[in-house]
# Entry
Amino acid sequence: MNTLLLGKSGEDIAEVYLKGLGHSILRRNYRNRSGEIDIVSLKESKIYFTEVKTWRSNILHPLEAFHKKKCARMRIAAGSFFYECGWKESDFLVSFCLLTIKNKSINFYVDLF
# Structure
């Protein structure tokens, strides 16, 4: 399976998983000049900005791919998302997350930064 199909498949699985946890999906593949966020969801009054990694490697742990530069880009993209929606970030709790899929195992890491 090529990388694009693997990523799309992972995002589909992640969306179903998050809905099962009670999340409302606000946007998938939100992009702007500074970055991209795979899934933006809402649960209660908390907005989750989630990076999805469909993982095949046994060498690195997915959290190792969640580097400082990626965190900075997600933070800027999140600010743009709030601005485009006309929302105030201060009206919500915000969580930056990583959802990993490897084989049939899903891990959801919340409040990473």
